[in-house]
Amino acid sequence: MSIQTASQAETQVSTHFQELVESHLSWVSELGEGMVTAWIEDQHVTLTGEVDWTYQREAAEHAVRRLPCVGSVENRIAVTARTPLRNAEERLRNAMFRDPQIDADLVHVTVTGQTAVLSGQVKSLAEKRQAGLAAWISPGVLEVHNRLVVRPALSSRRSRP
Length: 161
Prior knowledge:
Blueprint: H1 6-26, E1 36-41, E2 44-51, H2 54-65, E3 72-75, E4 78-79, H3 88-98, E5 107-112, E6 115-122, H4 125-136, E7 143-146, E8 149-150
Parallel strand pairs: 2-3, 2-4, 6-7, 6-8
Antiparallel strand pairs: 1-2, 5-6
């Protein structure tokens, strides 16, 4: 018969919790091995590391946050643009032209540094979201200011006699 002290039991729980978090992070297909590290204290998880894209940062947090034993998550993962920003505005406009949900003629894109600013108008909130997503996944963009205004198309109304 083996007797455990309270500190040994806590160490086992802590080790199991660490392994569980690391296991969930390893299943995130968007992350390469060693890109993100989890530091755990009680039920609080702090994520650190560097990723190339915002969606990778968000995927890591989502994978850990959904664990039932996690009380809180602090996401300190840095997004570092490793892709050259040459022709970023043109590439983003082209991506929007290819998206059937976006009327790219009414959307204006400006990229300054690593920030994309969307202005103009769209017909629906879904179109605004889609344009924002197109900006977020553009190489080198780390911040998006979505200033698009939603103006639904007027439906043809019959005039009353």
